[in-house]
Specification:
The protein is an alpha/beta fold. The protein folds into two domains: about 190 residues, Rossmann fold (3-Layer(aba) Sandwich), CATH 3.40.50; about 170 residues, Rossmann fold. It has 14 helices and twelve strands. Helix 1 packs across helix 14.
């Protein structure tokens, strides 16, 4: 099979979209797919759009993201069409709706992403306070992209339901395939068993991995940690991804490792060590389209604890690779859950093992790629 892999970013950059473009495209190549990369798509300068952006931001105090206009989508589509002129690809595969919404092509179009415009509107900070003009265009663009594609594939049930309910998508072409862990080392089962069994029984180690302190629930992390310590438990909280934590006087049991770049061997080794030793990954996000870190945690046999929001429940299956609590859950509720499993060694080991099983069964890129190829071949 020959696939035209479309993304506005650099498909070979391990940092692009948290590494999704890179690991996804590599999984296709490893499956024997011939790839035509149509990436690094840039928007041409538009004086009119620039004036609009300034008008909305300065005078109306509204966001006007230029990359989410119909004109921008049509520009991307024209660029893609030009690069496809001599292509013999079987399928156009895009990691978003915007580049291909208005692409007219003889081969089927497929997109694979983590959310719809409607599901993100006023949910993520970057989708808040948008100009009414952009909201109208955003909905129209999403509707046209879904209507013109052969397959609309999402990483979660949450996003798939939005495509059907908010945009009238044909349920027959809406599919769900969870993302895989963006990690290029595959550990044998006996090695992961060693990670699990070697975890400390004297110090509870919690890992937080996220670049947005507020959205990822950083304050709730600290409140929960304080509650755990008040119960007489020795605790270490390891924070990754936050260069500067917006909190003064952090307690001694909180260690900030800053942003760790997996493309830098030394930093990747440090992150690997943190995953191996962590009892839990705790990221109680306020908003989350999926949560790639939960896949990574499962890779290491680390149970994940988070909030029932967005697409998280497609990444974390309660009782399998962790738990999600309701939005009303308090720091005490999270502390109860974590302490319960940490205090019962056999129950913890069982949860850690099933966390690894979830990675093997569905949260790895080989499995995701096989599912994607199966769907693509069917059309």
């Amino acid at each position: 099979m020959n696939i035209a892999f479309v993304t506005t970013d650099n498909a070979k950059d391990v940092l692009s979209w948290s590494g999704l473009n890179y690991y996804m495209s590599q999984s296709f190549q490893n499956s024997g797919v011939r790839m035509e990369y149509i990436d690094n798509l840039k928007l041409p300068f538009s004086a009119i759009n620039l004036v609009k952006k300034i008008f909305y931001s300065k005078l109306l105090n509204k966001q006007f993201p230029l990359g989410r206009t119909i004109a921008s989508s049509k520009s991307y589509s024209q660029t893609i069409a030009n690069r496809l002129l001599n292509s013999d690809c079987d399928c156009i595969f895009s990691t978003g709706t915007i580049p291909i919404a208005y692409l007219n092509a003889k081969m089927p179009k497929v997109f694979y992403t983590d959310a719809t415009f409607a599901s993100m509107l006023d949910y993520y900070p970057g989708f808040s306070n948008l100009a009414a003009n952009i909201i109208r265009q955003g909905h129209q663009l999403e509707r046209d992209a879904i209507a013109s594609c052969a397959l609309a594939i999402y990483s979660s049930d949450w996003a798939a339901k939005s495509a059907i309910h908010d945009y009238g998508a044909d349920p027959a072409k809406v599919k769900v395939v969870p993302f895989g862990a963006n990690w290029d080392v595959q550990y044998p089962e006996e090695e992961v068993s060693g990670f699990i069994n070697n975890r400390s029984t004297g110090i509870l180690k919690i890992l937080f991995n996220g670049v947005d302190w507020v959205r990822k629930g950083g304050d709730l992390l600290l409140s929960t940690a304080k509650e755990i310590v008040s119960r007489g438990i020795n605790l270490e909280v390891h924070i990754v991804g936050i260069r500067q934590i917006p909190v003064e006087n952090l307690p001694d049991y909180v260690i900030n490792h800053g942003f760790l770049n997996k493309s830098v061997p030394r930093e990747k080794f440090e992150l690997e060590k943190l995953y191996k030793e962590a009892h839990f990954l705790f990221v109680p996000s306020l908003s989350e389209a999926f949560g790639l870190v939960f896949c990574e945690a499962s890779l290491f046999g680390v149970p994940s604890i988070s909030r029932k929001t967005g697409g998280v429940e497609s990444a974390i299956i309660d009782g399998k690779n962790g738990f999600t609590l309701t939005e009303a859950a308090t720091a005490g509720d999270y502390a109860d859950l974590i302490c319960y499993y940490y205090g019962d060694y056999e129950k913890y080991i069982s949860l850690a093992i099933t966390s690894r099983c979830e990675y093997i069964a569905r949260l790895n890129w080989k499995t995701a790629c096989n599912s994607l190829l199966h769907l693509i071949k069917a059309i």
